[in-house]
Amino acid sequence: MASNERTKVKSRNEAFVDKTETRIWYEEPSKDNPYIAENNLCHGYDILELAKKRSFVDTLYLLFRGELPSKEDSIILEHLMIALINPGPRHPATQSAMNAGVGKTDPAHILPIGLTILGGEYSGASEVEPCMRFLRKNRKRPVNEVVDKLLKEKASDDDFLTPGFGSKFGSIEIMTQKFVDQILYLNKDQQTLYWANEFSKKMNAYNVGWLPTGLAAAVFSDLGFQPRTCIGLFQLLSAPGLLAHGMELANKPVTAMPFISDENYVIEK
User: Which of 32, 120, 207, 215 is the most exposed place for a label (fewest CB within 10 A)?
Assistant: First the structure.
């Protein structure tokens, strides 16, 4: 194509809306200034009344689901929030927040740095959606049938059988299983969580068990959240731990974090 030729652009003939609309939030305008809210409604519920009578957990559920949770669902979501509140100092996302903190990064950037790493596919938020889809697809099938199929499809020992389940540092995670047991003790009607727990037990023979992303996927599924939404929800619920660890080191010298020596760097040919 000659440099002076132009690609013909076709009109999409799409009509844009005149203003942004949302079913989530309504702002009652002030009489003096329509751009200032007199009151806020979340899915029709007065936010001030929610603050008086409901919890943060209930309001979070309402924000994303459009309705208030039952007492049982509220308790289960709260357990999940506590289970995910801190990925732990060994998690790459936490390590990145800690390095940002000790490196005197602007505090406004510490959490975004950690959340960026937490968005990854390995033990990160991007693992939650495919795990939810796996559980939705298989939760009504016999566990043994699903396990046998996965093992036959496995290409090598390095392959993960499915997102949300695996091992850490060569072993099955203990704490995630304890949270699963605790939630099931509170409410055995969590069908997805129950099936996934049976699946995990079967996979223990192959050194595969629950990961936090799998716990999140199962609970989110039982609570009715949409898979794509849960990528961000996983980041949101894990954010406090990232920020806490990052800010803990923000006022410490750079020597408060290890510096890997040259002999520990390996460049593969």
Answer: 32
DSSP classification of residue 85: S
pLDDT tens digits, 37-79: 999 999 999 999 999 999 999 999 999 999 999 999 999 999 9
Phi, psi of 94 (to 5 degrees): -65, -40
What are the sequence ranges of the domains in the chain?
A: 21-52, 84-248
Handedness of CA 158, 160, 164, 170 (dihedral sign): negative
2-25 confidence digits (pLDDT tens): 555 666 667 677 888 888 899 999
Q: How far apart (Å, rounded) are the C-alpha atoms in residues 77 and 60?
A: 10
Q: How far apart are CA 247 and CA 27, in angstroms?
A: 35
- Closest by CA position to 176, among listed 187, 186, 165: 165
Mapped onto helix, strand or coil, the DSSP state of residue 164 is coil
CA dist 47 and 66 (Å) reads 14
Sheet holding 25-29, edge to edge: 25-29, 37-42, 45-46
Contact between 103 and 247 (Cβ < 8 Å): no
Q: Is the dihedral of CA 102, 108, 114, 117 positive or negative?
A: negative
Q: Which two tokens stand for residue 258?
A: 């290890």
